[in-house]
Amino acid sequence: MRPVLIEAMTLRVGHHSTSDDSSAYRSVDEVRSRDKKDNPTLRLRKFMSQRGCW
């Protein structure tokens, strides 16, 4: 096998821990925007639709 590079974009959808309140450093608008823009289910559906698999 040959080496492979995988680039992955991730976003934490919850707090770091139960004592962390991410609303102190992440606005509600940012979270909602990310939900619409980077929703993995919608992205997969779009990918599959473009290839005639959905």
From TrEMBL:
Keyword Oxidoreductase: yes
Pfam families with a match to the protein in the record: E1_dh
The UniProt record lists the keyword Phosphoprotein: no
Cofactor(s) required, per the database record: thiamine diphosphate
Gene Ontology annotations of biological process type: branched-chain amino acid catabolic process
Xref: Gene3D superfamilies: 3.40.50.970
Positions with biased composition (Basic and acidic residues): 27-37
Listed EC numbers: 1.2.4.4
Enzyme class: oxidoreductase
Function: The branched-chain alpha-keto dehydrogenase complex catalyzes the overall conversion of alpha-keto acids to acyl-CoA and CO(2). It contains multiple copies of three enzymatic components: branched-chain alpha-keto acid decarboxylase (E1), lipoamide acyltransferase (E2) and lipoamide dehydrogenase (E3).
UniProt name for this protein: 2-oxoisovalerate dehydrogenase subunit alpha
Organism name: Rotaria magnacalcarata
